[in-house]
Design goal:
Layout lengths: L34 E9 L5 E9 L4 E9 L4 E8 L3 E5 L3 E5 L4 E8 L6 E6 L2 H14 L4 H10 L8 H18 L6 H30 L27 H17 L6 H11 L3 H17 L1 H10 L5 H15 L12 E4 L4 E3 L8 E7 L3 H5 L1 H11 L5 E7 L3 H10 L5 E4 L2 H11 L6 E5 L5 E6 L7 H8 L2
Parallel strand pairs: 1-7, 11-12, 12-13
Antiparallel strand pairs: 1-4, 2-3, 2-5, 5-6, 7-8, 9-10, 9-13, 11-14, 14-15
Helix pairs in contact: 2-3, 2-4, 3-4, 4-5, 5-6, 6-7, 7-8, 7-9
Length: 470
């Protein structure tokens, strides 16, 4: 594998590049706070255009979902906060590249696998024209990642997977090399690096995924991770990619495990020793600090106090960003009400539990760690129900019949509620559900006590005693 040490980015004060010859990206490589980027959709089809998708913010990690309905001959737009040059996923079929302060205009004639017809204007129109051709080449854009997972399902010896992943990646880089008309030099470097890092990321993620769903270890040789030799955390000035950040994050976490530095804080310490005191380290640490925030606020406050960032101004800025983007539903504010059906088909609202402290646990059929909590959740329910504690388990992203079967099979004794697709959409927005398992603690007055509460297996008697007083 060729070395791809070109990747990194400029300092936090975004620079404007000389646009001549398009040797460098003509815009801002990074905005730590984030800047709006506008994506305009014009519908030139005969039918109402349905635009659904997702955007992943890295700083910190937050999922933003959108759903537009645009009549024929009309237009609508998305305004999303971008930190760097990044992609928006559209209908699972193609992606649109945008960046801080940029405006991309898309005239849509049809969205079909292998035959999506979109014309681009405004910023990044040449780059998006390439990406559309690439998505049509793949069939649908989701195939860029799906091919790796499909091959991972077919092999028994996972030590063979890195070579298989490299062959998949080469098909993608070959398309870039053959593409005509030629793309600008900066974009060719950027896209080549993105594809290579995507291949690296899948070598990690496919293995992690298989271990997660099988619920048991999958042994690999030490040289399985030889691809990490091509990973550099040194600053060189090229635009950053999300694929690089995922790869670097996993790499640093594993290095901390090798050094036997325990807990989530190990990755922060490894970032200091490997990436140093740089803006790149700031970005990586922001993601990890956001993870701390979503696990336990006390841990976040402790780590934030000792974590080194490039300047004190940046440290204050990072704390403000994390608090603003992850800190809802707001602690001390009334919890958003929701009304769902229980296992008997009866309608149950959160408001009906006023006067009781409540723990809400969000889970799904596919989430192994969620289901692993069931025995302890049952134990908590039995131990504290007579003292007024209410435990509500809400099932998401699962078929109703599967939810009922699991609820009965695992003898879930707390309040069990089901969120269909429409209910989940509202709950996800109101409760900022980005990852599960997720627990929220609510007081007797229906106000949020903790928007990221400990899992049942981690709770101590003192935690419950404090909750019962609220």
């Amino acid at each position: 594998m060729k070395s791809i040490v070109r990747l990194a980015f400029f300092l936090l004060v975004a620079a404007t590049f000389n646009a001549q010859a398009q040797e460098k990206f003509p815009g801002k490589t990074l905005s730590l706070i984030g800047e709006p980027a506008v994506t305009v959709f014009k519908n030139e089809s005969a039918d109402t255009l349905k635009i659904k998708g997702m955007f992943f913010n890295w700083l910190p990690y937050v999922e933003t979902n959108f759903d537009l309905r645009i009549p024929p001959s009309k237009q609508d737009s998305l305004t999303l906060l971008f930190n760097f040059l990044d992609h928006i996923a559209i209908n699972g079929t193609f992606r649109i590249l945008n960046a801080p302060g940029k405006r991309v205009v898309c005239t849509v004639r049809s969205i079909k696998p292998k035959a999506t017809d979109v014309e681009f204007e405004g910023d990044l129109h040449m780059e998006n024209t390439y990406l559309l051709s690439y998505s049509n080449f793949l069939g649908i854009n989701d195939n860029e990642s799906r091919a790796y997972y499909n091959m991972g399902d077919k092999i028994k010896d996972f030590n063979l997977f890195p070579a298989i992943a490299d062959s998949i990646t080469k098909v993608r880089t070959d398309f870039l090399e053959r593409y005509s008309p030629p793309v600008s030099p900066w974009f060719k470097r950027y896209e080549y690096d993105r594809l290579m890092y995507n291949g690296m990321m899948r070598k990690d993620n496919v293995l992690i995924s298989k271990r997660f769903y099988r619920g048991k270890p999958i042994p690999v040789n030490d040289n399985y991770y030889d691809f990490e030799k091509d990973l550099s955390l040194k600053y060189t000035g090229e635009p950053i990619t999300t694929e690089f950040l995922w790869t670097a994050d996993t790499y640093l976490f594993r290095q901390a495990e090798k050094k036997k530095i325990p807990g989530l804080g190990g990755m922060l310490k490894m970032t200091d020793s490997i990436a140093g005191n740089t803006s790149l380290a700031d970005v990586i640490k922001t993601r990890r600090l956001g993870t701390f925030y979503t696990h336990k606020r006390e841990d976040y406050e402790r780590e934030m106090a000792v974590t080194k960032l490039s300047t004190t101004v940046v440290k204050t800025m990072v704390d403000s960003i994390i608090q603003a983007r992850l800190g809802f539903p707001k602690v001390g504010k009334k919890a958003p009400d929701m009304t769902l059906k229980d296992i008997d088909g009866k309608t149950v609202s959160l408001a009906s539990f006023a006067g009781h402290p409540v723990i809400i646990n969000f889970w799904a059929e596919w989430c192994g760690p969620c289901k692993a909590e069931f025995p302890m959740e049952n134990k908590l329910y039995q131990q504290y129900k007579d003292k007024g504690l209410v435990i509500i388990n809400i099932c998401l992203e699962t078929k109703e019949e599967s939810w009922k079967a699991i609820t009965k099979r695992d003898d879930l004794q707390m309040v069990n509620l089901f969120a269909d697709a429409e209910s989940y959409k509202k709950i996800k927005a109101a409760y900022n559900i980005g990852a599960i398992p997720r627990s929220i603690a609510i007081g007797k007055d229906q106000k949020v006590i903790a928007n990221y509460y400990q899992r049942a297996s981690l709770l101590k008697d003192a935690d419950i005693a404090a909750l019962l007083k609220n």
